[in-house]
Amino acid sequence: MSDITSHIREPFSIAGVCVANRLVQAPMAGITGRAFRLQARRFGAGLLCTEMVSSYGVTFGNGRTADMMTLTPAENPAVVQLFGNKPDVMAEAAVAAEAAGADIIDVNMGCPVRKVVKTGAGVALMEDEELAARIVAAIASAVAVPVTAKIRSGLRGRVTAPSLGRRLEEAGAAALAIHPRLAEQGRGGKVDHAVTNLLVKQLEIPVIASGGVQDPAGAAAVLAGGASAVMVGQAALGNPWLFADLLAGTEPHRRPLAEVLAEMGRFYTDLVVEHGKERAGRAMRKFYGWYLKPFKSGTGLTEALRRSGSFEEAAVMIREKYQLNY
Ligand SMILES: Cc1cc2nc3c(=O)[nH]c(=O)nc-3n(C[C@H](O)[C@H](O)[C@H](O)COP(=O)(O)O)c2cc1C
Question: Are 71 and 40 in contact (CB under 8 A)?
């Protein structure tokens, strides 16, 4: 195996937080709860991330928001990602996140969703570099753990990541993650890791590259550009084995249905611990299609599984459909 594919297995550090390898689980709203994070860790991800958590929700004392950022020891090292646009509120939320077990606090500066952007948070912060830097500085002076930010290439056709990156580094950011698409691209269009490489050249701190990594060659290419680590998001949906494949440098391949079903059961068990049975059953619905995609489940089965009363019922339907022996 070439040096560049084995590089992903080497440890790195974010301001003293040791990460066992260069594989980071990407934050995904509505998806990367504790069960998902524990799964990513079981398959080898060195660093885990919560989904974005509202700083206002934290400071208002919203119970569900508090749950979203509570970490268990098995998840460390892990990042709590916060969104918001007020330095004092973000700093207060960061203090709570640190108390909830965060090893790193990340500021979301990449979310392009309207309801977030219109509050001045998410990618809107990329348009106000002064405010973005003040938020990072306020958090850095409020907590002992490192502060990072996750940015995009820029917005409104302008690539501003390198200049913003320098400002955030000066303000105290210990690392940056970049999803190198413009805000207006959403999740579509080309991911341009040339921008990641440009950012790497501008900064002393580690840069984590997010976007389009699906196989060892893709991860190796990004690391070869100088990024300290790769983040993996959508490609791991229904395919947690990808984390192990990336670390081993083996081509991602389809696992037998029995193994997939067993993993779905394991994931569901963690969802039940996290949310209780009823909410776990509902949460499971969005995952059926992802897990069964390689088996050409078709929308008919996926819809039927989504309508099923419980995971147990869904598992019986899957076994029947594919004539899997018990
Ligand atoms: C459903 C979904 C939710 C996401 N939520 C977040 C989020 O809460 N915070 C964040 O920084 N990025 C979020 N992202 C962006 C991902 O972290 C990642 O940067 C992006 O999907 C590109 O990487 P990928 O090609 O590996 O998926 C989300 C992406 C998806 C698909």
Answer: no
Which among 24, 55, 185, 234 is the best mutation to test ligand 1's pocket, defined by most ligand atoms within 8 Å of the CB?
234
Question: Residues 194-226: pLDDT tens digits?
Answer: 999 999 999 999 999 999 999 999 999 999 999
Yes or no: say if 80 and 71 are a contact pair by the CB < 8 Å rule: yes
Q: Give distance in angstroms: CA of 301 to centre of ligand 1.
A: 27
Please tell me if the CB atom of residue 100 comes closer than 6 angstroms to any atom of ligand 1.
no
pLDDT tens-digit map of 168-193: 999 999 999 999 999 999 999 999 99
* Beta strands, E only, the chain: 12-14, 17-19, 23-25, 48-54, 78-83, 104-109, 147-155, 158-159, 175-182, 207-210, 229-232
- Looking at the structure, tell me whether residues 128 and 196 fall in a common domain: yes
Q: Domain span at residue 275? A: 257-321
C-beta 232 within 6 A of ligand 1? yes
Instruction: For residue range 299-313, list pLDDT tens digits in order.
Output: 889 999 999 989 999
- 14 shares its domain with 152: yes
Rounded to the nearest whole angstrom, what is the distance from the C-alpha of residue 233 to the centroid of ligand 1? 6
Catalytic residues: 111
